[in-house]
Amino acid sequence: MEFSGQVSGHDELPVVVLMGPTASGKTELAIKLQQHLPLDIISVDSVMVYRGMDIGSAKPDADTLLRAPHRLIDIRDPVEVYSAAEFCADARREIQAVHAAGRIPLLTGGTMLYFRALLYGLSELPTADAATRKKLEVEAQEIGWAGMHQRLSEVDPRAAQRIHPNDSQRIQRALEVYELTGLPLSSLQQQDRDRLVLPHPVIKLAVAPAQRSVLHQRIDVRFRQMMEQGWVAEVEALMARGDLDPGMPSIRAVGYRQVWELLSGRIDYTNTVEKGIIATRQLAKRQFTWMRSETGLHCFDSLTPDLDNKVLDLLDSVIGKQ
């Protein structure tokens, strides 16, 4: 089908958001939608921003990008930190450019923090406090990060639910915010979700298999395929640079961390695949948690026959009313 909705004036042009867990088929759907709609795709992915990190991020290949260009891909070197604030600034600029051309931005990806920051604004949270962090690190040495996660569950159960017990960085930050403000991080973040700050009509879509077991199977198959496609060699090239280490945000990315451990001799190939698949499933679980808290989300089963036409029908009806 072809899109029939009409809009006039750049101020009335919407922003379409397409979110979903990893391996849900977001990119494929976005590209199909672009064939029928005046869409420009803007990537919302904290790993695809990095050059040379292609296989493990499931970045579209060169031929696909020629047919369906993605903005905010390959814009940083892996040695650089790329924050949610930087993403918001870049995404707003790209949205403005797309609207100026009379087209509709389609923001698609799985980095939920980026979506939240762009749609609702960045939380006005206290800045990092060295003394508080040191105190928490000392406590973690005594009881372990699993114990710190248990402590977090007592003061902020909602944050603890979405933060993995092994994610020491986020556990520390959540406890730090509580120590400094006396308020749970989740409640402070929820305050920001009461209203959209993006000055455009927003249409929010989500795609995922209805059965979690199907997604797990997809994750398993895709991880193994990426390993066969040369993921280890890709990480070898990153390691050979000599200026990257596993503490950097780029190398901490799911999958890259496990392959780095393989090349460092800490785990074998079988364990790399097993740990990588488990970590990817945990990422998907966190993404689902974010999506469940999102209001006004039009959800689609990624296994629905004729999925792209069903999404186009929705967009036609919604955009046509703008």
CATH topology annotation of the largest domain = Rossmann fold
The main sheet orders its strands as 3-2-4-1-5-6
Please give the domain count.
2
CATH architecture of the largest domain: 3-Layer(aba) Sandwich
Share in β-strands: 5-15%
What share of the residues lie within helices?
Answer: 40-55%
- How many β strands by DSSP? 6
Explain this structure:
- It is a single chain.
- This protein has helices at 26-34, 62-67, 84-100, 112-120, 130-155, 157-162, 168-181, 185-192, 212-228, 231-241, 256-263, 269-292, 307-319, and strands at 15-19, 39-44, 70-71, 104-109, 202-208, 297-301.
- The radius of gyration is 20 Å and the shape is globular.
- The chain has a six-stranded parallel sheet, sandwiched between helices.
- Helices cover 52% and strands 10% of the residues.
- The protein folds into two domains: 10-121 and 197-319, 3-Layer(aba) Sandwich (Rossmann fold), CATH 3.40.50; 130-192, Histone, subunit A (Orthogonal Bundle), CATH 1.10.20.140.
- With 322 residues, it is of the alpha/beta class.
Briefly say what this structure is.
This protein has helices spanning 26-34, 62-67, 84-100, 112-120, 130-155, 157-162, 168-181, 185-192, 212-228, 231-241, 256-263, 269-292, 307-319, and strands spanning 15-19, 39-44, 70-71, 104-109, 202-208, 297-301. By secondary structure, it is of the alpha/beta class.
